[in-house]
Amino acid sequence: TANGKGIVASGVNLTVEGNSITVTDTGLADSYAISVSDSTGVNINDNTVNYTGKTNGTFVNNALYVADSAVESIDGNTFDIAIPSVDVAWPEISPGNYVRLPVSEGIVLKNDTGLVFANNIINLNATDIITESGYDTIYAVDVDSDNAVVDNNIIAAKGADYIYGVIVSGNNFTVSNNAIQAESDNYANGID
Known about the structure:
192 residues; mainly beta; 60% strand
C-alpha cells in the first residue's frame, strides 16, 4: 500500500469482493484500507481487511470509509483493526452548534443512501493513546446516514479511555441482532 492507503475510489460504480487487504499506515497522511466517496452501486462484500493505523492525532485513520454514496451491500467482511485512541475535536461551527470530528475510527459510513451494514466481523484494538485532555476516544463503527440498517454484526472493541461499539446518527435507522463487546479502562458504550 502506498502512503497507508489501500483502495481509494471516488465517483465510480464500485464492487470490492473476496479480497485480502492489508494496510499499515505510515503516519504521514490520512490513511484508509478502503475509502469510497461520491459513488454508486457500492458493494463491499466478503473481504478480509487488516488495518494498522499510526496517526499522530492529526491524520485520519479508518479501516473503511464510505461517504456520500449509494450503497447496495456491505456484507460478510472481516475487519481486524489496530488504531490509536485519540482526542475527538468538538469545534463550534455556529453559536451553540458543535460537531464531532474524530480522527481515529474503525468503520465510518456517512451520508450514504440504501445503507445496509450486515454480517460483518469487526475486531478493534487501541494501540497507542494520543491525548491532551484525557478523553481519547475510538468509535468502532460510526454510522451517520438516514434509513441505515446495522444488522447481525459481531463487534469486539477494546479501547483505552473511551470506546464506542456503534455510534449512530441520522433519522429512521435500525440497529438489530448485533453482538457487541466494548471494553475500556475508563468508559465503554455498546450503542450510542
